[in-house]
Design a protein that fits this description.
alpha+beta, 4-stranded antiparallel sheet, 18 helices, 10 strands, 10% strand
Length: 469
């Protein structure tokens, strides 16, 4: 790893009086006080932190599992430039010193690298990419804390939790609607991950974590800063998306919302910061919107996006890419127009006639895109939609073939190989019709048949859907 110590001097969280040997909290007055309610001597005068949670986090097995998880997830490098492939060698050489510095409270996380990705609505999502070493440590913390919090998290929370998925969340919503809760309160949190209040979050953590060293380490990660265009900026709030620990911290923060909604006996479903509440009347929905908005902003110190939060019928809203429709006897799940259009745009990009990739590679990329998309949206009813999409995709592939053949002689020779008589092949090869128009002509539908396209590797969206639906 490149020199990680060069950031230590400039990124001190406790700038004065920091004790390097035994503890991360000061005995008297410091800038950041411990909020752990443990005494100095601790439980039975054995451990001043009252717990061996940090030792569990830094155990050999837990760190090995964390490394394997980070390695499997791959991902981009942090500000130090170290890649996942370089991580193992660094841990072999520096692992013992890294562990010791964590135990003694000397370790300082490096700032995260700012990355912006486009959002479907046209905005920009801010990600913070930690170094690979910090990702291993965060993963180790998350692996140890998840079992603790899984025991207390609400059943209506589905995001970033073991054995839970977006499909289960959408199915729960459908059950609410069919039970008569046909008005939805769709609450949108403005820049949630970037606005998490650190003091509030640390207070919530201290209710369950009695090892002050772990609390301090998490605070260091929250305040490690972000590097933007080579300049390190302080992070006084937020838990940047991109690290293994952020999803758990976001659930801990919003667990307070789950508890409040449960106390009010409301039917709700939350996936990370996406939350829908279901009631039986518009009047009730407006009342809930007002009350819960006040709770979120005053108690959780978060901001509700008034422009995107709304009260409406569930079948007019989008939740995790899905919506609903009225079937013969019940409400059923459908895919929302936005993710469908986004998927079609992706297929269009992969089948652009100006894209010079060969057909074998094109079919591979199409398969990856189709299988991944279907695996997520398979619970929705969209058989007829996919049939139409398949026809459109095959037409685009025929257009790509016609463009690749390019020269008249090449078109003639390929048409002959595919069974067109010589005279007709010359006639078709000399056509002046445009690529998109010729792609729908009988000559290509009779030569580049559905069966032939399947044999050479084009996957059918409908067939993949039928296998997993």
């Amino acid at each position: 790893m490149k020199d990680t110590k060069k950031y230590d001097k400039s990124r001190q969280l406790h700038k004065e009086g920091y004790l390097h040997k035994d503890r991360v909290e000061l005995q008297n007055s410091v800038e950041v006080h411990s909020i752990s309610p443990m005494s100095n001597k601790g439980r039975n005068d054995v451990n001043e932190y009252g717990s061996d949670l940090l030792e569990q986090i830094l155990s050999r097995d837990n760190l090995n599992n964390a490394y394997k998880r980070v390695k499997a997830n791959k991902g981009s490098h942090g500000i130090d430039g170290m890649t996942v492939d370089e991580l193992l060698q660094y841990l072999k050489e520096q692992g013992q010193e890294l562990r010791q510095s964590l135990l003694e409270g000397r370790y300082r996380p490096q700032p995260v690298r700012r990355v912006e990705i486009p959002k479907p609505d046209g905005g920009r999502r801010l990600l913070g990419i930690p170094t690979v070493v910090d990702r291993v440590i965060q993963q180790a913390i998350a692996q140890t804390l998840i079992p603790i919090y899984e025991k207390k998290f609400c059943d209506n929370s589905y995001g970033f939790r073991p054995s839970r998925s977006a499909k289960q969340a959408v199915e729960r919503c459908r059950q609410y609607i069919n039970a008569g809760y046909t008005w939805a309160v769709d609450i949108d949190l403005a820049k949630y991950f970037d606005t998490i209040n650190h003091d509030k979050l640390i207070k919530l953590l201290s209710n369950d974590i009695k090892d002050g060293r772990v609390i301090s380490l998490i605070r260091k990660y929250l305040q490690s800063g972000v590097m933007i265009n080579g300049v390190v900026m302080d992070t006084e709030e937020g838990a940047p998306q991109g690290g293994p620990l952020s999803p758990l911290l976001s659930n801990i923060m919003l667990h307070e919302l789950d508890v409040e909604l449960t106390k009010r006996e409301l039917c709700f479903c939350r996936y990370a910061d996406d939350c829908n509440i279901y009631v039986k009347s518009k009047k009730s929905a407006n009342r809930v919107m007002k009350g819960i908005t006040k709770f979120i902003e005053e108690k959780l110190k978060l901001k509700v996006n008034k422009d995107k939060s709304t009260v409406d019928r569930p079948w007019k809203l989008k939740f995790l890419g899905f919506s609903f429709y009225r079937g013969k006897s019940e409400y059923r799940i459908r895919i929302h127009e936005k993710p469908l259009n986004k998927f079609k745009a992706k297929l269009k990009e992969l089948t652009s006639r100006s894209n010079a990739m060969n057909m074998e590679y094109r079919f591979l990329k199409l398969k990856q895109a189709i299988v991944g998309w279907i695996n997520y949206f398979a619970i929705a009813d969209m058989k007829n939609i996919l049939k139409t999409l398949d026809e459109w995709l095959r037409r685009r592939i025929r257009m790509c073939f016609w463009k690749q053949w390019k020269k008249i002689k090449t078109k003639h020779d390929n048409l002959v190989k595919l069974g067109i008589p010589n005279n007709k092949a010359w006639e078709y090869a000399n056509t002046r019709k445009g690529y998109w128009r010729i792609s729908n002509s009988p000559v290509l539908s009779k030569t580049l048949t559905n069966k032939h396209l399947k044999e050479i590797g084009l996957i059918s969206i409908s067939e993949v859907y039928s296998l997993v639906h």
